[in-house]
Amino acid sequence: ARLTGLLVEQMQPRSVLDIGCGVGHWLDAFRAHGVADVAGVEDPAFLAATDAALRPGAEPRDLAQFSPVRRVDLCLCLGVVHRVPQATAEAVVAACTRASDTVVFSAPAPGIGLPGYINERPWVVWHRLFLSHGFTLCDELRPLVEERWGRYPSPYDLLVVYRRAATTPVAAPSDPVGAALLAAWQRIDEQVLQGFWFARALAAVPPVVAKPLPRLRYVRFEIAPERMDAGPQPGTRTFRFRALATSVALAADGVDAPMVAEDAAPLSLADGGDWSRPGQFSVDAQAIVFSSRDGSDPRHNGRTYTVRLPAHVAWLEHQPGATVLEREL
Questions:
Q1: Is residue 271 a contact partner of residue 198, using CB atoms and an 8 Å limit?
Q2: Helix 2-11 with 142-149: angle, nearest 10 deg
Q3: What are the residues facing 239 on neighbouring strands?
Q4: In the chain, at which end, N or C, are there fewer CB atoms within 10 A of the end residue's CB?
């Protein structure tokens, strides 16, 4: 929902096609932001590995043979090309360029080696492929992500934009100017992505100590009304983490999931993006979203809202923003 809002704000698409859409969660997110004309396609073999139901607008299609039947304002291709053979990946990129003049794209850096990652390539491979279809790279989203959130909670934060620069296909340049262009596109993304996935891999490595580490001490952190921002859905409020260490700690292996309570009575964990029932909460890498049990505004209903956090994390969240920034630097 966070990144979709950024895309809608910056590009104002009226129609969207998501190639390799999974079960269609991005389609739901665009609808929630007012874009009604959305569609997505996903390979049947990939869908067979999940028990989740397809969202409206998503349909199974052979990505190696898929050709869009109409053009749209915005085409997405997020986390797709690394899980299909290179020939299929090239067909997917070609389909993206036929679908729209603007393609939002993401792929992991090579060398991650997670299950299902059968086609990890350096980013310059995708740059050269898009260039062969007359598309150039526009680094227009990453600065906004850095400005607004200051970090990359997920690899999708490093999505890039390819825009059509030529109306006919062109050969990827091999002359010095063309080589310099491709080299300029080989930006910091791969280093950031490598660091992100390396941290994930380290979290999965068993500890080398012979006995379990001591359990963390947890406390109840009270969410002040002034830190209850507007939520993504009507009736919801958002508590944004002040410290980067908070999101890192909550993602760490061995840390219990936060539990939000209203007047000490636990709220229930929201089911995906369904906020039709009050009294729920959800957690991601940067914020907690919650709603009151009776639908009233948590800022003004006189009740106390708390979240269970490790003691050191709660201490950080109590500090002024300037103190947190100084300590993180």
A1: no
A2: 130
A3: 288
A4: C
